[in-house]
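MODEL INPUT / OUTPUT PAIR
PAIR INDEX: 1
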Amino acid sequence: MTLKVTDGQRGKWAVLHVSGEMDLVTSPVLRRRVHDAVADGRRDLVLDLSGVVFCDSSGVGVLVATRRLIRSCQGRLRLILPAGRSPVGASGTAATGREQGAHVNRVLDALGVRRLFDVHPDVASAVAAVPDDEEEAGPLSA
């Protein structure tokens, strides 16, 4: 299987929809697309990983490197990850749709790195979320 990355935009957020397998062979595709977005001046990035069916350590490495890159640019990174579920549905058939991306969620959790990421269930909630530092600061006073 291959990795497919499609561009999108929601307001000031660049959105990369990722589907397929993130492994040693395919992960450089995502790395390049992230670097291209940053080179184009995009600093607020959403990675929609809900269509990813497999992720190995190479894929996790790209996610961690993306976090580092975005932070170095004073940008924001948000991941779309469905909640962890079994890869096989109740009927015994392979999972589809939002259940696919749950694999990445489980991998990040198992490696103890999920806490490093700002995770949301869908793009709409990711782009609407207020950053923690803005919530704490409250409204600006005159």
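PAIR INDEX: 2
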Amino acid sequence: MIPIVSIVGKSDTGKTTLIEKLIAEFVKRGYSVATIKHNLRGFDIDHEGKDSWRHKKAGARMTIITSPHQLALVQDVDHDHSLEEIRNIFVRNVDIILSEGYKGNPFPKIEVFRQALNRPLLCKKEDNLLAVAADIKIDAGVPCFDINDAKGIADLIENQFLKNKTNENPV
């Protein structure tokens, strides 16, 4: 089973920046990474007037856009899929999945925190909080890393979920 680690936090804390750094660190170590971004407001990856947009507008339930180097799937769904569903249906041939958002999921989480935003942590240790990445030291009962310490955070994730491939995610 491919392990999933969620990077969570309030808006503008640096979740995407941390994920970018973690991806680069894992790729440098020889791992393949998939990411899943959750957006409650919805999104549009296709552009008005393009062929695939026209296909969807005409009523296609699923449109696949492909090239020699990329493949994208746009599919109507009847519910907000869980990380587990997305992993089991769509994700193959990677060593780890990093998700952004999904703060209520049961998978291990690393919360990104910025003191200047003056907001409390979203998660507790009981919420499967694995660590905190912050611009100040926080005692949350889990390791606290500097927000820029992608190497240290990657070490933690690697030791917990990648070094021993038989170590399954706790979900």
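PAIR 2 NOTE: The longest helix spans residues 15-28.
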